[in-house]
Amino acid sequence: MTLLCLCVGCDSHKEEYVRVEGAMLGTFFQVSASTELPAEQIYDRMMHIDSVAKASMSIFDESSLLSRINRGETDSLDGHILYNLTLAEKIHKISGGVYDVTVKPLVEAYGFAGKNPSAKVNVDSLMAFVGFDKIRIEQGRLIKADSRVQLDFNSIAKGYVVDLAVAELQELGIKNYMVDIGGEVRCGGVNPNGGKWRVGVETPFDGNDTPGAYIQQVISLTDCAMATSGNYRRYYVDSEGRKVAHTIDPRTGRSAVSELLSATVVAATCAEADALGTMFLALGKEAAIELAKELADDGVMVYLIASGEGDEFEVYYSEALASSLKEREGFRVI
How far apart are CA 135 and CA 176, in angstroms? Predict the structure, then answer.
């Protein structure tokens, strides 16, 4: 999870900054923006976006469009689902199949979708209706090869909603802003001090359950988005006392086991950064580093934290990200 670090109302900058915060998508949100508009108006806009997003893509709301699609009650896609499904397919191809939003049956069986985990997960059975090859889009409709195929946008939707919020601010004529929804961040222009926005990356250790308590790195950004994926908070303990991580490898149907603890991605949009973070985490350290090199020409930058000797960490970062990092000593350039 990333953390919003900001200063509001600083005398050294002429423009006034409004800070709005509350709850969205079952998590927190914070908006800092330079505007003459009242905070209440921005808050109302955020609540409208929250309502629209949940009605479209929530897997926890049984009445959402996505829930009805998953139950086979409709095959009609709205613009939100169509956008996310199209982007998800693109990243699915980039990842060689490691990123896949059809994993909902597996996610649910392992107990990561608000359900109790199954006593025994029959992976082979579930894999029969997992995979992008089992769906296609025709004239705005989702065609399933098997009615049991289900979609889960939790790895991309939060970032997408950040993008929706930014589009709303831009429509209001706001140029200097930062939007943070549950640690997924997108910023533009300058912060209240007139400089770049500063975003924290948390230290990914077992037991770090307090967002913002332990910051491993601070990254200075503007006019881009950033998202972090990590396994150190979301897991369950199985009957043998083992911790099972929430990132599932759709190629095997089992939890991805890797030295990679945290994957932070900087990209043009938050939806892209969100999905790519999940992808890198599922790939594992070595494959993530190699793919990050390939994606550098597309403007994608990464900051990866892996387990090292004992309690030490190994940190890898994109060369293009170097000037934005507060600390670099001892870290490895990709």
Answer: 40
How many Cβ atoms sit within 10 Å of the Cβ of residue 150? 25
Model confidence over 230-250: pLDDT tens digits?
876 554 455 655 444 557 888
Closest-CA residue to 276 (of 225, 311, 332): 225
d(CA 288, CA 282): 8
The DSSP 8-state label assigned to residue 118 in this structure reads P
d(CA 318, CA 65) in angstroms, rounded, equals 38
Cα–Cα distance for residue pair 255/244, rounded to 1 Å: 7
- Residue-wise pLDDT for 129-187, tens only, equals 999 999 999 999 999 999 999 999 999 999 999 999 999 999 999 999 999 999 999 99
328 pLDDT band, cuts 50/70/90, is very high
CB atoms under 10 Å from CB of 11, counted, come to 6
Q: HEC profile for 44-113? A: HHHHHHHHHHHHHHCCCCCCCHHHHHHCCCCCECCHHHHHHHHHHHHHHHHCCCCCCCCCHHHHHHCCCC
Buried/exposed 232-241: b ≥16 CB within 10 Å, e otherwise? beebeeeeee
Query: How do residues 95-140 score in pLDDT, each as one tens digit?
Result: 999 999 999 998 888 876 556 666 578 899 999 999 999 999 999 9
Say which CATH superfamily domain 71-144 falls into.
ApbE-like superfamily (1.10.3980.10)
With CA atoms as reference, report the closest residue to 326 among 244, 187, 233, 219: 219
pTM exceeds 0.85 for this model: yes
